[in-house]
Amino acid sequence: MACSGPDRRASLKLGDYEAIAVTRRGRVLTLTMNRPERLNAVDAQLHTELSRIFVDAANDPDSDVIVLTGAGRAFCAGGDVGWMQDAIDNPDSFEVTMAEAKSIIFSLLDCPKPTISRINGPAVGLGATLALFCDISFAAENAYLSDPHVSIGMVAGDGGAVIWPQLIGFARAKEFLFTGDRIDARRAAEIGLINRAIPAEELSATVDAFADRMVAGATKAIRFTKVTVNLALKQLASSIMDAGLAYEALTNVSRDHQLLVERFRAKSQGR
Q1: What domain count does the chain have?
Q2: Interval 166-183: pLDDT, tens
């Protein structure tokens, strides 16, 4: 159900973004991270676009529900390793990354429209964070989630340390954040990390049906309920994000991080 009354805001234009494809189905706005050749790994451009897309989507008068997904066979593979090396070589650039990281999380939390993550494949690192900060998360049964910041020698300061403990408790969250171990979608649903694991061939239809149910619902009541529930999450994010990002910045210039990035790049290049 669309909100009534005049709205002078401009619609989000499909061509405003390059690394994110924006499509519409009625009043459902789908945002697709669109670097399929890199499994939608986040580079500088995608990170910048993610830092403003949810503000634009929130202000878009032609939509009531937002779906976030990835192009191709992955939801999002986390940070692009080439971008990681650039941050090591140019540590001052990490200040921009830190500011954008806060914008990504708080714009997701501040967006009053229901957000649904359609986890069509691996959701790793920041990809997992994005999926879990959405209000509702549906994953294909062959997908998995992990936050392997530690595997690359970094602190999970971009939101993982905030959301994982809230969903699965501190003990489980520490286990997965300390190890970076993968959680398959079925197990993730069982322990409450995501809402549902769906057969891959049914994922899109399931997400569409839930999005349509939200569109047909009482828009203001749904939005204000989300705003109310998210107050606690916003308080937690406010108390944790700065420290987490500061520690992540320290690990960005650590020897461990450089060695692990070099090892990862060599492995990906078959050396």
Answers
A1: 1
A2: 999 999 999 999 999 999
